[in-house]
Design brief:
The chain is of the alpha+beta class. It folds into two domains: about 120 residues, Roll (2,3-Dihydroxybiphenyl 1,2-Dioxygenase, domain 1), CATH 3.10.180; about 120 residues, 2,3-Dihydroxybiphenyl 1,2-Dioxygenase, domain 1, CATH 3.10.180.10. Helix content is about 20%, strand content about 40%. It has five helices and 17 strands. The strands form two sheets. Strands 9, 10, 11, 12, 13, 14, 15, 16 and 17 form a nine-stranded mixed sheet that branches. The chain is globular and about 45 Å long. The two termini are about 35 Å apart.
Length: about 260
């Protein structure tokens, strides 16, 4: 993939029930999700298709994965120039490695890693000559915002900025700390290039991690559909700076996600 180093290039749902997750997200987000796995053998992996391009994949957690502690959840992939070099830099900066650099034939080289605060994500260099459009700020069905809640915001920013060149693009105060907007290195000053934010977690007992917001056309309809299909909205839709409306939810298998729509 030709995306710059430090770009979000893919998103992945890990689920113990592929068919239930497929029905839920197709109805809530509007994706078309493959009925059959694209992977040979026992590993089940399906592609999530937005109206104008692919936005991610869905990995079915098998019995061995579940026995090993895997749980339903969303993970993001950050594109890097060199997976092996990035992993070595990550380890030197206090991060950890869950899956070492590995090739997926005809797809790319990846590693599953965690930051010093324990937040898990992937780094990857895709073999495709085309750029990923999985993240598209205003693209319906795409990830529109990437948000990190962490136990140490200053240490987290130092880690990610050193690894990926991410920069702060201003901030706004929250009751529990600064909500810092993030952009890629040398992206300029426009808020249009901001792709997400990070903040301290609201309470010590809250889990750390990235939350990904999928863009839908109507937030009220999506909120009602989440409840109808067995998900759990964690808040009512609320307006955020810029005029968009958002809410968090968990799907019926327990994976947390966000939805965003125009006002």
């Amino acid at each position: 993939m030709t995306n710059p180093h430090g770009s979000w290039i893919w998103y992945e749902l890990m689920t113990p029930d592929a068919q239930a997750s497929r029905s839920f997200y197709e109805a809530v987000v509007g994706w078309r999700i493959d009925a059959e796995s694209m992977m040979p053998g026992d590993t089940e992996y399906r592609i999530l298709h937005a109206p104008d391009g692919d936005t991610g994949g869905m990995l079915t957690l098998d019995a061995a994965m579940l026995a090993g502690g895997a749980k339903a959840g969303w993970l993001g992939y950050v594109g890097v120039e060199d997976v092996d070099a990035t992993v070595e830099q990550l380890k030197s900066a206090g991060g950890s490695v869950h899956v070492p650099p590995t090739d997926i034939p005809d797809v790319g080289r990846f590693a599953m890693v965690a930051d010093p605060q324990g937040v898990v994500f992937y780094v990857m260099r895709g073999f495709s000559p085309e750029s990923s459009t999985a993240f598209a700020r205003t693209g319906e069905g795409h990830v529109s915002w990437n948000e990190l809640q962490t136990s140490d915001a200053e240490a987290g920013f130092a880690f990610y900025s050193g690894l990926f060149g991410w920069e702060r693009a201003g901030s706004m105060p929250m009751p529990w700390g600064e909500y810092s907007f993030l952009r890629g290195k040398d992206a300029g000053d426009s808020m249009e290039v901001v792709w997400g934010a990070m903040m301290p977690r609201e309470k010590p007992e809250h889990p750390v991690g990235w939350t990904f917001y999928f863009r839908v056309s109507d937030i009220e309809t999506a909120h009602a559909k989440v409840k109808e299909l067995g998900g759990t909205p964690l808040s009512d839709p609320m307006e955020v700076p810029g005029g968009e409306r958002v809410f968090h939810a968990t799907d019926p298998q327990g994976a947390t996600f966000g939805l965003v729509a125009p006002k």
